[in-house]
Amino acid sequence: MTLLVGVIVHVATCLAVAAKTQYSVYILLSVAFLLVFGARMAIFRQFDRVDKQSLSHAGIERWERILVASGACTTALLGFASGYAIFVVHDSFAELACISVTMATMVSVVGRNYGSRFAVDLQTFFCCLPMIICSLLAMDFYRGVLSIFLIPFWLTTRAMANGVREFLYENVIARREITIIADRFDTALNNMPHGLVMVDAENRVQVINRKACELLKIGAPERLKDRDLGAVLRYGARHSFMDASQPELILRQLTQVAEGSLSRTLIHFPESLSLEFSASRRADGGAVLIFEDVSSRVKAEQKIMHMVRFGALTGLPNRQYFGQLVQEYLAKHPRKSGPLGFMVLDIDEFKHVNDMRGHVTGDHLLCAIAARIKQASGNAILGRLMGDQFILFFPHAKQPTSLDLEIRRVHASIQGNYEVDELTFLVSLSAGYAILESDAFALDEWSVKADLALFESKSRFKGGISGFEREMDGRYIEQQKLKADLRDAVSAQALHLAFQPMFRADGARIECAEALARWVHPEKGSIPPDVFIRLAEDMGIISDITRFVLFKACSECMTWPEHIAVSVNLSARDLRNADILSVVADALAHSGLDAARLHLEVTESCLIDEPAAVRAILAELRSRGITIAIDDFGTGFSSLSYLDTLPLDIVKIDRSFVRNIVEDARRLKLLRGTVNLARELGLKIVIEGVETEEQLTLLNKHRSADLVQGYVFSPPVPSQNIRLLQEGIGRRTVQRRRNKVA
C-alpha cells in the first residue's frame, strides 16, 4: 500500500510538472515510475511464493539484491526529476514539486528499509546526488550552498535508519529468545512429575500445568486461565473423584503452608490417591502451589508400618503395638470404670510339633490357633507375644465375676482338635490371667502378674488356667531373690559336688561315678537340684555351672583308683556352640585326667535344637577319647532314632523303666527289648534308679545291665567316699575268697 500511494504521488507530480512546464520528459518519467512499480509488485508476488525455509544463504542474498535494486530504480528516477528541474527547467513550481516528493521519499526510507544498510545508502545516494550535481552545475551560489546541506541530511537520515534498524533487530532477537524460553518453560512445566499451580493475589489461576490437571482431574490447562482456584477445585469435586470437603481442605491447608504454619501437607483422596502439597507466597501477594503423587510412598510406609506392628505369620499385633492399642483404648475411655482383664496363653509342647512335623506344619498350626483365638475373643484386644504365646486384653466389664467367666470361656473354646495339613492335632493351651481395676493398669506390671499366673498354671497341669493371686507376688519375689543368690553362689563357686557311683551289675566294682551339683543356701538350706538347675537355665548361667562341675569332677577323679571314670552332664545350652570343646580340653589339661576316664552325658532335649551341630560337637568329643552317654533314655521323643544317628557309647535307661518290673511283666519285656536293641548297636547299658534287691536280681537274671546306678548299691556320696566304697568292695572280695579256701 505504501508503494501504491507513492507511485500515485510520483506520477501525479510528474504529470503536473509536465502540464506546467510543457516538458515531455516528465511524461516519460511518469511512464517509468509505472513500469518500475509494476516490476516491483511482480517481484514481491514471486518472493511471497518462495519457500523461505528452503532458501540458502546465497539465495537470500540474491533476493535482497533484487529488492534493493528495484527500490534504487525508484529513487534514481526521483533524483533525476529533481536535478532536471533545477538544471534545465528553471521553474520554481517544478523544482518545489520534485524536490518535495524526493525529500519525502528519503524520509520514508528510514521506516521502510530497516532491514538493510546497503538499501538505505543506495536509495539516499540516488536521491541526493543528482540534486547536488545539478545545483552546482547551475552556477548559482546560494543553490550550491543549499545543495551542500543535503550531505548532512543524507548522513542524518542514514544514522536514523541505522538506529531504527538496530532497535527493531534487537527486539526481533529478544522476541525470538523469549519465544524459545517460553517454549522451553512450557515443555519443562508440562513434563515435570509434579503438579504446579500459580495463582495471583485474588486466588485466580495464572499458570497450571498438565500434571496438576491430571492429578486433580480438573480439565485442560488452557481452560483454567484466570479462573478462581476454589471454583476450579469445586468443579473437580463435582465431576471427579474428590470429596465435597476436600476443595476447602486444600485451600485451607494451602493458606497454612503459604503462611509458614505448615511446611507441607499430605491429603488422602479416594481411589488410594495421596497427594503431598507445598506452597510459597510470592511478592505480589500470589502463591505457587506444588504437589506430587506420593501414593506409592504412602503404600510402602503403610506396609512397613504394618510389618513393624503386626506379625508376618499370624497377622496379629506384636507386643509393642498391642500395648499401644491398649493405651489408646484407655485414652478413649478415661472416665469409664469397671474391671479389666489381661490374659497370657501358652501352647503346650508346641516345640515338639516343629520337631516331629516340621516348621511349615508348625506355622500352619500356629495360624489356625491364632484364628480361633481371634474368633473366640470377641471385643478383646489380641496380640502375639513371641513364639507360641498370645496375649489378650479384655475391656471394661460390670463385675469381676462376669469378666472371670468370659476369660475362662475364651480359654475353653480354643482347646481341642485342629485340622492342619491333613493332620489332626489335639492342642491344649495353658493360661494365666489377672483382673484389676482400670486405675491400677500398668502394662508391664500386668504382664508380670499374668506370667506368674501362667507359671502357676503350667506347674499344676497342662491346659490349665489360673488367675493371679496376691500370694504369687510373694513367691515371685522369693524366686527372684533365689536367682540372685544362685548367681552369687555360682560366681563364688559355692556349689559342691556329690557323686553317685555306677557299679557292675554283680556289685563287684565301681566303674564310674556321676558328678551331681549340690547347693546349700545359707538361709534356706539344701536346694533341690531340679529347682536350681531350672533357675540356672532360665538365667542363662547353666554353662558356668557346667564349667565348674567339669573342672571339679576331673580334679576329684584324679584322687580315685585309676579304673574309675567320672561322668558329667551337659545341658542343651552347653551344646549350642563349639565353646564346650575348649572347656572340656581345659578341664582335662588342668587336672591331668586321661580323656578315657571322662564320660559326658546328654539328654534327648539337647538334641532338639540344631541336631546336626550337636552331632558334630559330640563326634569331636568322642574322637578325643571321651565317652558319650545318652541320659534318661526313653523319656523323650523319637528316642530310637538317636541310637543309630548319634556318636554314642553308653545308653542310660531311665528309672521309669525299672520302677515296676518286679510286679509288671510287660514293663520287664519293654526294658529287655530296649536293652537288646541297644546291645545290637554295640552300646553299653546303664540302668538308673535301681533301688531294691528284687529289681537287681531280676536285672541280673536276664543280664539286662552292664552297670547299675541306684540306691540298691549307694546314694550320692562325697568324693572321698568313692575310694572308701571301692576299698570296701575289695575287702569283701578278699574275705569271700578266703572263706572259699577255708
TrEMBL record:
SMART domains: EAL, GGDEF, PAS. InterPro entries: Biofilm_reg_signaling (IPR052155), EAL_dom (IPR001633), EAL_sf (IPR035919), GGDEF_dom (IPR000160), Nucleotide_cyclase (IPR029787), PAS (IPR000014), PAS-like_dom_sf (IPR035965), Rev_trsase/Diguanyl_cyclase (IPR043128). Residues 338-470 form the GGDEF domain. The chain crosses the membrane at residues 26-45, 66-87, 93-111, 118-138. Keywords: Membrane, Transmembrane, Transmembrane helix. It comes from the Bacteria. Residues 479-730 form the EAL domain. Pfam families: EAL, GGDEF, PAS_7. PROSITE patterns: EAL (PS50883), GGDEF (PS50887). The keyword Transport does not apply. NCBIfam families: GGDEF. This is Diguanylate cyclase (GGDEF)-like protein. It comes from Rhizobium pisi.
